[in-house]
């Protein structure tokens, strides 16, 4: 099969008939073929990637809420709409809404990192005299895709943002996003959360 | 002058070594192989940079239409969960109390289910092929609105069954609307469960490199 006859032609000896010696060697090529076929099969059918998971902690509902001091300047709001767009603004007033996306370094990540850098340095100290950290409020609009929630939580993880919460968007925010970032009904007392 | 004979060298390669290696690999793959389970609920999970894995979790699957299903590997836990649910819903739906041990055993063989508890009796009296057909085409999902919070009850039952040693994973399709996911989370927080795992698959290399650290927030 896979070998070439190497007997050298001869073999005609004078005299008696000599029985031919059979080689004891077995051709293993088909066996190897089969083994590799099976290996390929098992390699392709095994699930090597175990599913990964990200942790999500939701707040407990407590009767007496421990009020945390939140300064206007440390809050960043992120709204995600149905078209995979990300809107963000700083502070508690819906103003200066800007649009971005999830595109790696240029998108929302850049803004979050900027905020994280800015807040401890520029915001006034708390009443206890400690530095403030950025707080990100994530608001998923009705009809947004689940993928985007995972994306934004992933961004939190990547940027190392420690304080964040998922909330329902305010009606005024919904309106602003629907109007392309422009707030029409000017509402001074946006509900402080 | 005698002819110089050039001995012809054999072209046979010894296959024994190669055969050894390939069978070794074959054995390894056979032993480590875990066949992809027959996915009854089609869920295309989103990607993230999270690298932590998990096991022993009750998985709540949410498909594209926003229907919820529960999946659990441990059959013993499933059995205990059903007992717990019968205890809870037996008064409202008396037919649950008539379930035989055989039917309960049958339930513990079902890894993924999405049947309202009131329908459980009918489903458990099906035979194997009927059940397969049902699972593939008609499973209506587990009720998860705030009035019929059966999903929350199932999860709570799983916590009883394992004495609290179970993680709760949410496995949702990436294109699912956010509302059913929120609903599930609300159902579970109503049952005093606040920690979840969102099942994702790891992002392909490259894009994560720029981020540097991917430490968890806590």
Q: What are the defining features of this structure?
A:
heterodimer; A: 193 residues; alpha/beta; Nucleotidyltransferase, domain 5; 5-stranded mixed beta sheet; elongated; B: 218 residues; 6-stranded mixed beta sheet; 7 helices; 36% helix; disordered C terminus
Description:
The complex is a heterodimer of chains A (193) and B (218). Chain A contains four helices and six strands, in the order H-E-E-E-E-H-E-H-E-H. Chain A has 193 residues and is an alpha/beta fold. The longest helix of chain A has 17 residues. Chain A is elongated, with a radius of gyration of 34 Å. Chain A starts with 28 loop residues before the first helix and ends in a 15-residue tail after the last helix. The relative contact order of chain A is 0.13. Chain B has 218 residues and is α/β, with parallel strands linked by helices. Chain B has a domain of 152 residues. Chain B is built from seven helices and six strands. In chain B, strand 5, helix 7 and strand 6 form a beta-alpha-beta unit. The C terminus of chain B is likely disordered.
- C-alpha Rg of chain A, in Å? 34 Å
Count of beta strands of chain B? 6
| Secondary-structure class of chain B | alpha/beta
Distance between the termini of chain A: 81 Å
The number of strands of chain A is 6
Biggest sheet strand line-up of chain B:
1-6-5-2-3-4
**Mean pLDDT score of chain A:** 78
Order of helices and strands of chain B: HEEEHHEHHHEHE
- Taken in chain order, the helices and strands of chain A follow as HEEEEHEHEH
């Amino acid at each position: 099969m896979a070998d070439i006859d190497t007997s050298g032609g001869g073999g005609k000896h004078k005299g008696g008939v000599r029985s031919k010696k059979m080689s004891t060697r077995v051709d293993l090529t088909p066996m190897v073929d089969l083994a590799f076929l099976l290996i390929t099969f098992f390699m392709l059918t095994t699930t090597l990637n175990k599913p990964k998971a990200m942790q999500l902690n939701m707040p407990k509902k407590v009767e007496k809420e421990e009020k945390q001091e939140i300064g206007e300047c440390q809050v960043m709001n992120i709204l995600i709409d149905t078209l995979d767009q990300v809107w963000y603004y700083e502070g508690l007033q819906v103003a200066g809404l800007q649009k971005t996306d999830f595109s790696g370094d240029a998108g929302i990540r850049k803004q979050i990192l900027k905020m994280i850098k800015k807040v401890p340095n520029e915001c006034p100290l708390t009443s206890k005299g400690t530095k403030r950290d950025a707080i990100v409020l994530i608001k998923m609009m009705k009809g947004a895709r689940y993928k985007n929630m995972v994306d934004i939580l992933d961004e939190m993880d990547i940027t190392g943002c420690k304080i964040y919460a998922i909330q329902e968007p305010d009606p005024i925010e919904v309106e602003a996003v629907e109007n392309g970032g422009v707030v029409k009904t000017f509402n001074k007392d946006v509900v402080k959360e | 002058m005698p002819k110089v004979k050039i001995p012809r060298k054999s072209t046979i390669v010894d296959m024994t070594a190669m055969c050894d290696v390939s069978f070794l690999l074959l054995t390894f793959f056979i032993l480590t192989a875990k066949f992809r389970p027959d996915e009854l609920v089609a869920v295309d999970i989103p990607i993230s940079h999270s690298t932590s894995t998990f096991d022993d979790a009750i998985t709540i699957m949410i498909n594209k239409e926003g229907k919820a299903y529960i999946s659990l590997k441990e059959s013993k836990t499933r059995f205990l969960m059903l007992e717990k649910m019968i205890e809870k819903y037996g008064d409202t739906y008396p037919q649950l109390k008539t379930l035989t041990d055989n039917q309960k055993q049958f339930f513990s063989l079902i890894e993924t289910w999405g049947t309202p508890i009131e329908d459980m009796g009918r489903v458990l009296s099906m035979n194997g092929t009927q059940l397969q057909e049902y699972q593939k085409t008609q499973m209506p999902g587990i009720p998860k609105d705030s009035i019929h919070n059966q999903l929350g009850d199932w999860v709570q039952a799983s916590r009883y069954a394992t004495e609290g040693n179970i993680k709760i994973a949410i496995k949702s399709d990436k294109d699912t609307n956010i509302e059913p996911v929120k609903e599930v989370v609300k159902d579970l927080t109503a049952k005093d469960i606040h920690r979840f795992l969102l099942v994702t698959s790891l992002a392909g290399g490259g894009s994560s490199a720029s981020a540097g650290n991917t430490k968890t927030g806590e």
